[in-house]
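Support reply, case 0932

Customer input (verbatim):
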Amino acid sequence: MGTVFIDQKEINIRSDGDSIAFYSKGKKTGTLPIAPLKRVVIVGNVNIETSVIHKLVKNDVTVTFFTGRLKYIGTIYGQMHNNGLLRVKQYEKSTNEFALNMAKEFVEGKISFQIAFLKEIPNIKPILSMDAQQAIQNLINKIDLIKDATSIDSLRGIEGSSQALYFSVYSKLYPESYGFTKRTKRPPTDPVNAMLSLCYTMLHYEAVREIQLIGLDPTIGFYHQFEYGRESLACDIVELFRVDVDRFVYEIFKQNELSKRDFMKDESSGGVYLKKSGRKKFYPLYEKWAQEERHKLRETVRALARRILDEKASLSC
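Our regenerated output:
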């Protein structure tokens, strides 16, 4: 089972032996054993007893909270690491040449994955073959620039322009009726951007979990520098997996797993979000996809930890 999504208004969650029990309007509606759980995702207004949280934490179950519009609130983790040396090394290397070298690898890795996806586009949508080929060549040129970059700021410029090149082609995969012409974030202004933002966010906190469990500090990154309240190392890691999200979102719409009817627009903010019906469809799709992503995330984080302890180690899984 691994993960359970709890997304039901006015539900009460209580402790029941080695299980958690669900109550609605005073009546018991079901139970769920704790033993197989790794993560619980709670969406919206749910009442949960502290005894349930105690049992989940004791069993190393991660509990993540989102609003009804799937805006992240916070996470409760189980038992943490005891690896102080790893964090000391991480802090040391975040301020020396190691940080720039790692940042180059993160950016080059991201662009390489973008190129790999663009190479598939002529088979997906032949009319975009010329656009894809031109973008690929430009991205190859960007990779050449990375080698000579002397600062994080110069890398940001390379990564930002590469992102624009990639999305100029990726956006054309979708029908015009979806209104997706470029990446918009706060708020997302169309169904595709809504799904990209949601999946990037969920993957980010999957990365935070793996980083916490191995003993690294999620706030101390290498490409993403320290910023109060931001898990910068998770931002670094997720750069390597963004194209995986892009593929996943494209397949969801291509297979008609979700349609425009599953989204709503907030007239006050202009943001577009999944409706309750859309969330119900999304959770099993995400969980099936995320199982493989979690394995890759875990291996990437472990490889990074080895690299921090021994710079000769490889970052590749």
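We compared this against your earlier run and they match. Two observations from our side: The mean pLDDT is 89. The longest strand covers residues 27-33. Please reopen the case if you see a mismatch on your end.
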